[in-house]
From TrEMBL:
It comes from Bacteroides faecalis. InterPro entries: YjbR, YjbR-like_sf, YjbR/MT2646/Rv2570-like. Transmembrane segments: none annotated. This is MmcQ-like protein. It comes from the Bacteria.
């Protein structure tokens, strides 16, 4: 898995936009303006993804390519290294999980706007 493939995968999801709100090397993926992923473009080695707290710990214990995300609340965010022991299938699953973690916290109003998207 590389940066461009994961970027395209994120953008293929419903309601997703990309931006650079922090600097010119931290690509942020948002669903309905809520962040679910941050891709480090400077070194192009990691993606930070939201995760269920219990699952986050399990993943960190099982995979050397997953650790608590730098500059994020490590209870909820993991950093996943590209070209590590995390295969493409798991990488996409983790992106999906992050996306779903954000969607499930939507307000009723935001959920209705999301549901109205094609």
């Amino acid at each position: 898995m590389n940066v461009e493939i994961i970027r395209e995968y994120c953008l293929s999801k419903k309601g997703v936009t990309e931006s650079f709100p922090f600097d010119d090397v931290s690509l942020v993926m948002k669903v309905m303006n809520k962040m679910f992923a941050l891709i480090d473009l400077e070194e192009a080695k990691t993606i930070s993804l939201k995760c269920d707290p219990d699952r986050a710990i399990e993943l960190r214990e099982r995979y050397s390519g997953i650790e608590g995300a730098y500059h994020f609340n490590k209870k909820y965010w993991n950093s996943v290294r590209f070209n590590s022991d995390v295969d493409d299938k798991l990488m996409k699953e983790l992106v999906d999980h992050s996306y779903e973690e954000v969607i499930k916290k939507f307000t009723k109003k935001l959920r209705a706007e999301y549901d109205a998207l094609l």
